[in-house]
Amino acid sequence: MFLPWTADPVGINKQAAVAFLAILGFVFWLAKTLSEGKLVWPKSLIAPAVGLFVIVSGVSAYLSAFSLDSFYDLFGRIDNFPSLLTFALIFFLASVLLRTGDYILKSIWVFLSSAILLAVFQMLHFLSGSLFGAFLLPWDFSRVIDFNSVGTANALAIFFGLALITAVIMLASQMFAGKSKIILYVAAALFLAHVILIGFWPVWFGLVLAMIFLISYRFISELHLAKTKGASEFSIKKLSLPIAVFVVAFLLLLAKPPIGNFLNFAVEIKPTYDATMEIAGKVADQSWRGAFLGSGPGTFVNDYLSHRSASLNATNLWLLTFNQGSAFWPTILATGGYLGTAAFALLILAFIWTAFRAAAKKFKETPVDVAVKDGQSLELGVIFGVSGGLFLLILLFLYPFNYTLGIAWFFAMAVLVASAAGSKKNGWSVISILTSPQRALIVSLAIILLMTFSAYVFYFEAKNYIAEIYYGRALALSGDVEKIDDSINNLGRAVNLNPNKSGFLRALAQVFLIQIGKTVNQKPSETLTQTQIQAQLQTAIANAVNSAQAAAQLDKENFYNLWTQGSVYENIILFADGADKQAVQSYEEAFKRNPQSPSVQLDIARTHLAAADRTDLTLSALAQAEKKDEEKEAALKQEKEALLNSGKAALEKSIALKSDYVPAHYLFSQLYERTGDTAKAIEKAQDAKKFAPGDLGALFQLGRLYYNDNQLEKAQAEFEESVAVNPDYSNGRYFLGLVYDKRGFKNKAVAEFEKIKELNPDNKEVAQILENLKAGNPALHNMGQQPAPPAPPTEPAPESEPKSEIMPKTK
Fold first, then answer.
1. pLDDT (0 to 100) of residue 805
2. Composition bias, kind Pro residues: at what positions (predicted)?
């Protein structure tokens, strides 16, 4: 399921639909129980194990330092407490409502039908995208080859692996004929084609094990049936398809052919198993709560930021963050601690015990109180629950958690429980609530309270879902500066509906920063005075600061909240006294929560340099004043020197964390240039170029330093290289033209500025330079100070972990 009006078109809408349906189903069951006057549930070890796992997860989430994300927020987190509670509710409803073989069979058909529809869509999507470069859906998020409604391409392969197992089980049962049989064969072929195209080896491994179980079960079952009827042979037909799938899966598991390269799926990157275990160990070492309860369900991203290895900074993966570890099992060690891991292990044991006990009983006895067809459906349910459940369980040890696959696993366990209960006498527990007036009153009140609470939860989550819609609208509008006010209005509505989601407040702070930039660039007019512009600017600054502070106060341990607060303060240094100190303080707190990040130290250094520049402006104003204040001037010079030294120290820390971090070397070069140490400025610019060959910002900085140091030949080489990298790079051509002019290459200088004029036809300074050159004069003749180039110089991108919720694109 996917809808285009939220920030995450697939995940959030799926979570909303599943949660709302689960709540409505629970209310329906409560009403049904009240009307029937009895409680009915299947006898099983899995149900209490699920309950224990959810309770332990709930305690861990509630006590977590990130409880807003872990305990309360349904949307955006696929493995936090609300999601696990939703899975448990699905398990409960399916296990108590699927009381007959007919219901079980219909539920399996519903699952298979949805998988068939998805398979048809995905095949058309893959073929149209790979062969014709055109996609079925018009939205940008769907116009990639591996788009699907399950998650990643690998998660999709797992889903189709489960669907293939289901189709094989149904065909092997020989319960279906005619059109149903044809549909099943076509579906199986379609599912197999998808699994082969994606080529995710854990799916083959899971299929091999699932087919081994299915073949063993069918073999023993047919052998038992043959002996019971006195026959000397048993039918091999029920084994042929599982054996065929087993052979294909086994061969592909050994060969691992790169078939998926045909479709150019995005490479999925995740932490290694060892790295995940190392992070889990560090979480446990922090405190007794971390050891026994972990950091809280759905909070692995915070664990990763705090405890990731410094060695990653030497790789191309250093910028990546991960919401989960290598697989669900090692992830839960970090997020659930010893108790959460033990509860999950008990759930696994309960499932395995129930699965093999139910499978063993199916071919030993036939219940006398069910019809033959119903008995076959119940047997089908047991096999589906065991095979599908084991397949998904294996993948939980090999792959990160996925919302759709989580639903599928709990559904498979519910089908197993319901089928096992229906396959034996006294498989259901029944308690009458009408045996006495007192019991009837107490149970009725409890049910009414649960219905009322469910209605409240439904309303609460519906309100939060509407907030997600407004948030999605805000993101879509934020790309256009002219629509930034509309983006702010939508974010304001989102915050009003869900004031406890710090991500909304972070985004609001960032949008206000865009509004600040827009306001600064405004010019007075007949309808807008300078005073009004100044008032708008002060309002935007206050709103940005308040939003960032609210986010940081709401979730004080969240790295992104603290980083955003630092970013807001950094951007208002020119407008607010003390903003630089607040920015540095916020960045330092953020660094404590991401101590291997070179980019946060870069942010600190950049803040110190911005503060030093502001101090420079004050010194310039003092120098022009009629009355000199030597004491204040000396203090400011001392302050500036301290700021530059602090910036230098932060840059040294940044480079110590990542020696090839280009933005740090680039900023170091600018710092030395500010202090007048041209030699060291050039040295750092050379380092930046060495680590980022072909980067326009690095080439421009080095060339400009050579130019200012009158090393014209070296400057020429750098600017020529920059123009070779990007022929439309006006800044490079501008200084290249100046170099040519100084070295006496007048014709070359004219050619460069002619090209710049083509790229910037309205630039009067370029026209004046051309006029000077053609008159035989120096390029900057009678132009006073050296004019600015036609566009701001390009700097290397500040490779920073924090990904903005808002990505502005000016017109």
1. 44
2. 787-796
